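Database export, one record per block. Field names are fixed; values are copied verbatim from the stored entry.
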Amino acid sequence: MIRNKNFIFFLLFNIILCRDVFSLENSIYKKIDLFGEVLEKINKEYVDEINQAESMDSAINGLLQSLDPYSAYMSPESFNDMQTETSGEFGGLGIEVSMESGVVKVISPIDDTPASRAGIKAGDYIVKINDIQVQGKSLSEAVDLMRGPVGSGIDLTIRRSGEKKALTFNIIREIIQIKSVKAELLESNIGYIRLTSFNENSGKQIKQEIQSFEKNKNVKSYILDLRNNPGGLLSQAVKISDFFLNNGEIVSTKSRKQAENRKYFAKKGDITNGKTLIVLINYGSASASEIVAGALKDHKRAILLGENSYGKGSVQSIIPLKNDGAIRLTVAKYYLPSGKSISEVGVSPDIEINEEDDDFKIKTETDNQLNYAIKLLNG
C-alpha cells in the first residue's frame, strides 16, 4: 500500500513538472512568435525603410545589455577589432568604456593616450560623439563611432559629476600602444611601480622591476600605482598579488555552474621580503586592479590610499558565434578573501585622499595622492 502511495506521488510530481516545463516552453515560443510579428510590422509600417540584419543585431545586443553593463554582442567586424586591440596596438582614443543607463561611461583613460592628455576622467559620461547622440546606441556602435583613421579628429561631449555644463573635448586619434609597467626610484629609497593594465606580460615585467629594486640596498618600501587601471587578465592579477604575499587566498570566482567555481592561493615567498607597501587606487581602478588591491588589503599586506575603486567584480568570457562574431558574457563573479563581492561596491581605501583640483594629473606635481604616499613612507 505504501509503495502504491509513493508511486502515485512520484507520478503526480512528474506530471506537474512536465506541465510546468511545457508551460514555460510554450510561453517562450509565444514570445518568439511575438518578436517575429513586431519585426514584420516594423518592416511593413515603419516610416523609413530599415535594414533587417542591423535590427536583429540591435535586438541581440539589447538582450545581452539587459543582463548587465558588461555583456554585449560583437559583430564579426567588432570581434575582429577586439582581437586587434588585445595584441597591444590599436587605433583610437585610449579609453576603457562601459554602458550605463544607455550612455557610454568611462571606466578609465589609459596613460599617455589622446584621451588622458585631453583631460578625460574616470566616471565621465559620453553623451555625444561628434554631433551624434549616444543615447539609444549600443556600446559596440558607440565604440565604432569613436574609432577612425589615425590623425583624424573627434569631438566628445562629456557630462561630469560636479559640472553644471557639458564639456567638449577635441581629440586626435592615434595608434594606441599599451605599455603596462613603468618603474622609477623615488626619493632614493622608494620603489615606485605603475601598472596601467593586466596583459600577458605584466607579471613578468613587474617581477623584473622588483628584482631590480631589491638589488638596491637603499630601497625600503614600495608604491604600487593601480589608478586608472581598467583591469585585464585574471591570471596576471593572481600572479602580481602573489609577489607580495607569503600564503593565503587571493580571490575566488563563483559561477552558475558549481563545478567551475575556483579559488586562487598565494605560493610561499614574498619577493619584496615584507617591505612596506602602499597601493594607490581611484575610481578608474577596476576588475583585476580591484582583485590585487582587495587581496592585499584583506591580508593586511598593504595600505590602500586614494579613492574608492570602480566596482567591476565580474568575469566576462568571449564566446565565438557561427557568423564569426561573438558575445561577451558575464560568466562569474569575483570574491575577495574576506568573502566580499566587488560588484557595484568596489574596494575602499584605508586612507581616503581625493584628487585636489581639475589640473590633477597622475605622476606630476599636481598628484597630491602620490605626494601623500611618499610623505607617509618617509614619515
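Remark 1: The domain at 179-378 is CATH 3.90.226.10 (2-enoyl-CoA Hydratase; Chain A, domain 1).
Remark 2: The chain has a mean pLDDT of 87.
End of record.
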